[in-house]
Amino acid sequence: MKRCDCDNDVCEELCEHPQTICLARAEMVPEIEAQQVTDMFRLLGDMTRFKILQALANRELCVCDIAAVVQMGQSAVSHQLRLLRGSRLVKYRKEGTMAWYSLNDQNIAILLQYGVDHVRQK
Asked: How many angstroms separate the CA atoms of 91 and 104, rounded?
C-alpha cells in the first residue's frame, strides 16, 4: 500500500483515464480563443489598467476624469486606454472635444468583481 506524501503534488504512478481526458479536451476552447483570453488577462495584470477598468465599471468617464481618479497624467492614461480599446475591453465616443470611455460590456465588470471577490475570500 502506498502512503500519501502530502508534499508531493504529482501522481505516484502513471495511470491516465482516457474517457476523462477525451471529455476535458472536448471542453477546451479553440486555440485562437485561448490566446485572446490569455492576452486579455495579461492586460488585466497591470495595476493602472485594473484601476481604469474599475473606475469605468459603473459609469462612463472622460479621459480627464479617469486621469484624476487614477492620479496619473492624461497622456499616460490615454496610452493605457488605447491598449484597452485595442483588446475591446473599453469603448469610447467623442462629444465635441471630450473623449468618453466606458466598458465594452458588463462581462468585464463581472470579471473584475469575481477577481475582487476571490481575493477577499479567506
From this structure: 5
